[in-house]
Amino acid sequence: MLAQLHIQNYAIIDELEIGFGKNLNIITGETGAGKSILMGALALILGGRADSAVLVEKDKKCVIEGTFATKTPAVVKFLEENDLDQQEQLLIRREITAAGKSRAFINDTPATLGQLQELAGLLVDLHQQFDTLELGKADFQREVIDALAQTGPVLQQYQTEYRQAQAAAQKVQALKAQAESLAKEGDYNRFLLDELSEAAFREQEIEDMEAELKVLENSEGIKGALANASVALSEGEQPMVQQLKSLLHQLQGYTGMLHGLPSLVERLNSVQIELQDIAGELEGLHEQVNYDPERASALQERLSMGYRLLKKHGVRDTGALLKLQADIAAKLDNVLHLDEQIAGLERLREQHQQKAQALATQLSEKRRAVLPGFEKNVNAILVRVGMPNARLQAQVKEGPLGPAGQDYIEFLFDANKSNRFEPIRKVASGGELSRLMLAIKSQVAGSMQMPTLIFDEIDTGISGEAARQVGIIMKELGTGHQVICITHQPQIAAKADAHYFVYKLEEDGRLRTRIRQLKDKERVEAIARMLSGEQFSDGTLKVAREMILN
Question: Coiled-coil segments, which residues (predicted)?
Fold first, then answer.
């Protein structure tokens, strides 16, 4: 329950603190006194939109703080899952700076707006004056029936299976699109792969052929140079090897006489041996180099093919061409694997779809089971609140599986026993919607395990006996929940366990909103004013007193 609400620097409230009771809390006051401003402030700590325009003093921040004394298992679980402190009481605070920046805190720990909204949904059901529009929405209507039918666990299982079926279906579509794209390129890719496979180039082949062809094309010059070098080293009139050998023979006779000569002789000996080896290798190369016109022609033809493929695919060497060949082969192979993946995902989707369908059937059965009792109870309450000829009918139609099952639930309304039921959103007036909402919420409040119910002027368009019955229903709701209700109806105010009066007070030339809890005598006078205005008689006081006692 909401134990205390502290408001600072919000609209025409400079600072205000209210402590609420456990059962039915009624808030009254003249129009414009600031009752709805209280609800606006409360909406902020429940995750509502922040606006710096609400600041009274623009150089100070606005602070709204709510203290909740009751923690349900769902709230405890929320705090654990979000690593938030577990305290004796639950403290929610919202701050708005002059710049319009907003910060939220849960038990003095910074929290996101999403966390605040999720927690608020577990603590408070806030019904404001225009929230009756929700009554005409399909999601709200289904949630009402689900609350009564206690479908939570089954619905959670269903949504898990449904999401997995949808995810598998999306993957199937994506893979099919990919397969279709690859299939369109398939014929061309097969042609490219066949062409490259037929060419059958090995690693570095084009570069090796280029080098070999250069040798063949320059074989005559190469052979001449090799022959000249070989002759100069080992043949001819004065071959270099023979000259070195002669020099060595002359020097060797003096190696024992001159320091340093032995090492030079040794080096010349090494040079002579190396030149002799070189001459032999040059002669060998000379024998290897021979112009082969057939080989040259074959190389030119294969190089031509290689150059054409390099140019066609925009690559520079054999390695890049072979990589391209492997990539094309992988693409074609992927098409086969995609078919296998698609088939596997289709099986998975079907499995989840079948499980979801079975759970959707369970949901339908649970929902249909509570409809007769729901209709009966709501219609009985409508009679009590001054709508004896009105009837509500809950219609369920089956359709394709969706996020909440296969059921489309719609509340139909007949205001005059005409047996012509139409969707609520089309035929119910504002006053009728308010009473319908109260009748419905009184049915689901227990099922939804909502500690606090807040009604902001739900009594719009009613008076007299209907208002008295609304008060009685509020009183009944207050036995199992904390109810906070803003009202203009004395019949409802008279049922309060705690009555708060909102008023304006001029201070330092400014109007300020104030609130106080009324004592017994003040309550009687407040209800008398609601009955007959500021000038009330003893008779009116007597009526007000009787309303409170009864």
Answer: 155-219, 335-369
Q: What is the DSSP letter of 295?
A: H
DSSP string, 106-140: ETTEEE-HHHHHHHHHHHEEEE-TTGGGGGGSHHH
Both tokens assigned to 118: 């999720």
CA distance 489 to 31: 12
Mean pLDDT of the region 139-153: 87
Query: Do 184 and 115 share a structural domain?
Result: no
Residue 314 has pLDDT above 70, yes or no: yes
- 419, 390 contact by CB (below 8 A): no
Q: Is residue 461 predicted with pLDDT exceeding 90?
A: no
Give residue-wise pLDDT tens across range 226-273. Answer: 778 777 777 767 777 777 887 888 788 777 777 888 888 888 888 888
Residue 103: helix, strand or coil by DSSP? strand
pTM to 2 decimal places: 0.63
Answer whether 526's CB lies under 8 Å from 499's CB. yes
Residues in Cβ contact with 531 at an 8 Å cutoff, skipping those fewer than 6 apart: 490, 540, 543, 544
Cβ atoms of residues 16 and 6 within 8 Å: yes
- Boundary residue ending a domain (314, 337, 360): 337
**Count of C-beta atoms within a 10 Å radius of residue 263:** 10
Residues 209 and 102 in one domain: no
Task: Report the alpha-carbon distance of residue 46 to residue 117 in Å, rounded.
Answer: 6
Does 411 fall in a domain?
Answer: no
- Provide the residue count of the chain: 550
For residues 42 and 126, give the distance between their C-alpha atoms in angstroms, rounded to a whole number.
9
What Å distances lie between residue 195 and 192, 324, 331, 335, 393, CA to CA?
Answer: 5, 12, 16, 20, 73
488 assigned to some structural domain: yes
